[in-house]
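COURSE: Structural Biology Practicum
ASSIGNMENT: Worksheet 4, Part C
STUDENT ID: 0417
INSTRUCTIONS: Below are two proteins. For each, the amino acid sequence is given first, followed by its structure token string. Answer the questions at the end about the second protein only.

PROTEIN I
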Amino acid sequence: MEGPTGVVFPRTGEGRSTSALGRAVVADALRAVDPVGARSAEHETNWRHGYLGHFRRLVEAGLLSREAALSIARDGLASLHARMTVIGADGRETGLDEAFTPAAGEPLETATVTGGGPVERDLSLPYRGQRLYGDELRRRLDAWVTAGVIEPSCAEAVGAVLANPDWLDLRDQRVVVLGAGAEMGPLPSLLRWGGDVVAVDLPRPELWRRVLQTARRHGGRLRLPVRPAAAADDQATLAARAGADLLHRLPQVADWLRGIDGRLVLGNYVYADGATNVRVAMAVDALTGHLQQHRDDVALAFLATPTDVFAVPAEAVRHAERGYGAGSWARRSLRVVSGGRLLHRNYPPGADPGINDSLVPQQGPNYALAKRLQRWRATVARDAGSTVSFTVAPPTRTRSVLRNRALAAAYAGAHRFGIEVFEPATSNTLMAALLVHDLRTGGGPALAHPWQDEAYGAAHGGLWRVPYAPRSALGLAVLLGLGGARA
């Protein structure tokens, strides 16, 4: 961790250690609410494998009260902002929140692309080679609810968008898609619906060629940051000059977004491998705070991973219990033969709320921390009165998942346990519809506790409602997936 510039991990006695940061931040988040849990996190000697229980404890401790959940979120974010630093091109290291003054370097300019394609005014969903409209889509939503693939509130929210097709016209919003090239992002759907999209992603010409092709194919308008001299309107020139690296050009991106007219919706769809994921997630969070300080019209949007720890409604627990009671003889035998390590029940009977622990060890503590800080920001921003769209997305066959052989195999075998893994086009369209719902309803209903906000509209693919604790079935899913691939 000694080489990078931009947003970096803090230097400690262990160097720029990702494990040291993770232990410290989780401990700081827990300290006021659960001091025993904080000490346990601080003294964890094997963070790479031991982080799972501590991230679960963050959720459990927050269930004590609304204020406990807010305390954990605020203190976790404060710890990250106090610890993470920025190293400039000159080698000078400063605090993260000082990154925006002054905004040295070449400013970003704006290029605008208006698509020539049709504007769709009816919600449709691509699914298994078809495009579902109207009653067909409603029947699919009902089938998912019955199978436990999505929460009923997800079907209700999408149904509200179906009933109000005028909601799809988002020309009154400026939806900033951070991670414009992300497979799970809403950019294609927003442009299809004629929206005004502000796209930010790395300066990679091949990425921008794809984004520009999407923009020209649909009927919306795309604004993108470009380095000066990108006046030419041809696609090759734009793609070569487009983009901005959030890790290294954070002040310039902030200045550029501050100048965008209209109500700003800051959508966080960024992802990077390994420790870089935490760095870029913190860059986005610093950008979020900066824009909130300088504009009073900023709404926030997040996609949560289903492979995390969530509190879930009592009805999800009952659904899982019904499945557990109806378990096959073979599965009961596996539980016995494995000494209870395989296929143990997802929840204690009658839990309200239940704790769904779908953390996947292969994804690692950096991924968990990057996603958790987004949840914390959503909680804090919603409490402060901001409009927040926060949705649990389904397991999806994205390129980043399929690169991990074990995860790819687990996804291939997941259907054996009642979990549906979505294709990217289905996921990103469904999530875009939920974003529209949240923007048109002020962030969805006002709920009593942050865990209920997180559970609303969840499309978890079945992980919350399967009979078995996900990690207790993971190994079997991998074996079944590998076997299916060989067959």
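PROTEIN II
(use this one for the questions)
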Amino acid sequence: MAREKISKDRPNARFHGRVEANGRPCEVPGCAEAGEFRAPPVEGAPQGGERPNAYRWFCLEHIRAFNAGYNYFAGMTAEEITDAQRPYAGWDRETRAFARAGVDPGPAWADFADPLDAIGAKFRDARVNRAERRDGRSLSPADRSALKVMGLDIDVDRTGLRQRYSELVRRYHPDRNGGDRQHEAALQKVIAAYQQLKGAVAFA
């Protein structure tokens, strides 16, 4: 019976915004209920410097009355009300850019020491992996990996690709190394990378 009385007399946690009063009364004169729901301070009320605004506290009945009487458009002109009611209101405001040219700016290197270049190297690798070609042609992850194998920049053209391929084949081919086959694995990687890039969209 006592539990039923409490549930009827006091709102429970299902009411959004309820805060345990701990003896705080409702601020409506003559109301003996607990002040468990907060409302903004009276407009123009002095505030305590850097301290947060002092809320007003009401019981459930009086916070409902407060909310029912709240008018967001109070004090606005007809033009301001129309502007606020547009379906896309707020979307035309400029927002902070989170990246530049698709790549986030790097950290401020002057703020800390990186003697092993561990952070710097990781950032540069990420930047290369996300950078785009100046001509707008797309590169797949496999294309980017192949460019690394051949030691080429992402903006290299088809002529530069062929020239680099010829250079690396001459460098690693056993016939150019007195029959020494120690560079054969590197040569196979170069050949595979060239085949990948030769058929890529960026070099079509």
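ANSWER KEY EXCERPT:
Q1: The CA atoms of residues 100 and 166 lie 36 Å apart.
Q2: The chain has three domains: 1-95, 97-131, 133-203.
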